[in-house]
Amino acid sequence: MSIHNRTPRSSWCKVTFQAVATGLFCLSLVGGPTCLAASVPLDKLTGVVVDDAKAKTVGEWRNSTSSGNWVAAGYRVHRGPDASMQFTIKPVKPGPHHVRLAYSAGGNRERATPVTVAVAGQTKSYKIDQTKKPSDGACFHDLGLFDIPAGQSVVITVSTKGTSEYVIADAVQLLTPAELKVALSKPLPFGSAPKPTATKKDPPKPPAPPPTFKRQAAKNAGQSLAADALDKLVASSLKLESSFNVIDDEAFLRRVTLDLIGRQPTPAELDAYRKDTSNTKRATAIDRLLASESFGTNWANYWRDVIAYRQQEPELTFHDYGPFNKWLAERFNKNVGWDEVVFNMLTARGKIGQQPAATYIGFHQGNAHRLAGETSRIFMGVRIACAECHDDPFVEGLTQERFHGVAAFFARTNAKIAQLTSDNIEVLDKGKGEHRVPRGKVDLKPTTLDGQSIALGKNDLDRRVALASALVSGDNRQFAQAYVNRVWGRLIGRGMIEPIDDMGPGVEHSKVMPQVLDALADHLIASNFDTKSFMRLVMNTQVYQRDRTRATDHVALASPAVKKMNGDEVFASLVAALGLPNVTPERQKKTAAVRFPPPPKSTRDLVADAFSFDPSMADADVPRTMKQAMFLMNNPQVQARINASPGSDSLLARLLKSEANDGVIADHLYGVVLARTPSARERKIVQDYVTDIDQRTEAWEDVLWSLINSTEFTTRK
Amino acid sequence: MSNGPIRSFLNVGTTCDGVVSRRAFLKQMSVAGAAGAAMSVGWQDMLVAQASELRKLGRSMILLWMDGGPSQFETFNPKVGSPNQGPAKAIKTKLPGVHFAEFWPRTAKVADRMAIIRSMRTNEADHFRAIKLTRTGYPINPTLAYPTWGSVVAHELEEPSVELPAFVRVGKPRIQTRDVNAGVLGPRYEAFRVDDPTKIPDDLLPTTTADRVRRRLSLTDRLDQAYADRGAKRAVSEKKAIYDRTSRFVLSSKTEVFDLEKEPKWLRDQYGHTSFGQGCLLARRLVESGVTFVEVFSTGGRNDAGWDTHGNGFRDTPNLCAESDAGYSTLLLDLEARGMLENTLVVWMGEFGRTPKIKKDGGRDHYSKGWLACLSGAGVKQGQVIGATDKDGKDVTDRPVGINELYGSFCHAMGMNADHEYVVGGQQPIRLVKGAQVVPELF
Question: Tell me, what's the ipTM?
């Protein structure tokens, strides 16, 4: 068996979305891909090598051997922007050397890991994309050739500053150009033969190409809108006359950072923003955040929750949204139009692992009824599910037949459910069949809610393409309006129409600002469903930047409400505030006795379980739960990060050691926990408390605990 | 059937799903609201009033769940002399003429505290579908997630003055995806989960002293007040309500209920040192402390097949029966000795039974046409067998009982009006049990 470790054809076997320890490195072999995960012993490597065990670390680095290849006993992992690892390495002889950094790549890794190489008074900086394989294709990444003077060392620093994903650091190596040439010509010297962990007999079939999306110009193309025009429209719709307070800079930055990239600003970001004196600093901040990779992740998480919360998991399969999230995040970051994204979701075929867009159909198990109901609800803001069983007597014309007309578009959709791994769920064409009303005798023509129908006998793809094309068309205003209402709802804290997914027709609801809804839908259509443009527009308005501290009910419709943060946001905030590590227990193995082991729950999963909610619910209906309170009050992992007793390496312990001034400590804690400066009143509350308790460490632990358990920490103002 | 203390005036027409259209409901509400206004109470007050009336009965329920579907032949309906019986012998019970399988010596001695329904008949013989049906009372519905029964009971009968959660689950289902949760009732009525009854649940106990937690909470209150004054009044009061409830729970001396070390060794031995056995003991302690609904899972602890004994049935069934025999029988005696049985409905069941036909290695497949459910306590007439199957255990020959009757009977025993409708998100009234009937022999 020969292993070509330099030019693997297939890259990743399976990387799930939350640091689940299954990312196994795949190498191409004769007879099919095989996944390998193996250790390279120190003594088999040439040149000079310093392993992570000998590096100087700041912050908590967890050891792991979950995926890829590693040097010696494993590689180190950290998530969160507060850690670094420093390797100092000295060559045997001075002269030119290649500096190489070992890391195990993976889909959940940081795309811009800051790395510096310092030698002879010069420092060179890199941003390493650790989702990509290192340059030798297996273990080591070449940082370039450095001339090392006699007696000098090279200092290589891997930092997590400004990162949000997993950062890996494993080892560094110095090789002369000649040694490098030899090293690259041979396979990695594994300690023992790598064990294949999965072998497939047949190479996977190439997935069916997804149908291409062609945008049709809308018949009544509307106009795009500017922020001040939108403000005027809102003011005239609500007959607002007086002016309103604009939220202060710090609160604005927290609001916009949470809304765009799903976490609060770091103290460094806050500081840079404070220092920006230009009068376009808010617009600049919005643009900076829209350009961040986390923008896509944050909004992918949102739409994942919209879809997932009404799905029931099939028997014996654990839904893994990892590939879907990644796909969706990429689409949003590339600014693919919302119409195209939805078209892709509705028309995708094949295995979910290979065609993540097929997740929407696949996780609904290809069920025509569920797809009809959910597609209408999520993408058009129309609830028709009641008509599955009976004519809706309260919505004029919503007959059972109309529901099943929509369902008929999915009459031939089939999803083959796979056990355990949802990646293997496959969306296929049944090849035959028509749809009927239950116990009905007539085959129904696939017909949209507005009456466009196609002939019987069409294949699955033709049906779904017909539905998707009609749905996402600029002429179907409800599609644009549904998006507008939802995103407005998330940004302002309340949809223009509530419930957010119940916009009619035939439903009586209070249309608060119909002209605004229309104008925003026009803007969306005119911009070819450009979601970044839409958010930029809303966020640059006075409406979005308003302070509602003393808002009347009337004004409340036009200023962002205080709303609960979801699980992803709370976890990101805990990481920012406490450096909470994301600990993932080992995956339980599938055995004869335990055939269906559930995936392990990481710290992030625990937080998501407690704090996540169905985003289609109004904020007032999202329950606060005992589980949430118990987690923040008592969870040992959280408490360990609050603990500042001697010997603890928590942020607080370090702060108390280096800082004596209570005011500075209070400001610092408010900065990391709530991303703002405390008010005079809050400073006094804290100062009085600290003065009152004689034990200094205990007092500050109490303050930090109280900030973490404050309402503000888990809400967005 | 009797409809409980107050018949709900919310009884409007339901659809096939037990869901009243929201429009009809609101219309009905406005009529009721007008009537309510005359009495100067709103309809919500009326619902609250009704719930507190029900609570006065002080009934609790313990559901012993044989996860995977227990065999009738190897439990409480052996067919001696039939080729379908297999090697398990039958033994006499406290009830003259009634036999159990030999694996149940201790339960046989308390058969006079049980009402054994031998004629359960349903249409679902697939785990997932059957679990949905038998744990919610409603057939599976892909577009509506009916809540598990414990959530419904917690929603109806929760007693706010009790520091503990109203609904506690002990143990875990054998396969995580074959499960039912609070569904449309949402996280507020989700079970408080105790995966391992011999361990204190995660995040329950503070990592510092109660005094210090109170001190911290009062500091948090002051900081929250500052936030409330900056426009977050509603968010703060919502959060405070849940923190009040949570701190009442986690700082309560009642959290001792989870510490089984407080029980005498002999009693713990009696219950059996299995997750199910100790879970039954915990269930008793919880009910004693005011918890309304407890479910305890029995899975045998050896594999994730649990009671789903397709293969190696003759190997696994004795182990499963042994854990259940000890826990179940001790629970009934313990509750009785403490005078709690009369107010606690104890139900022993699984999602279905197993086929009369025996497979080569002693396994049996799924069977929904003649299975078992046993009820005790809460006014149930004990010491009787209801219904029967034929001599080979194939068909129900007497008094078939469906899920609507079983659930109707649960409601009756608990003092709940099965026709009562609960409202989700202000718009979807769902009836507790659709087409509820009571099994009259039970009461």
Answer: 0.82
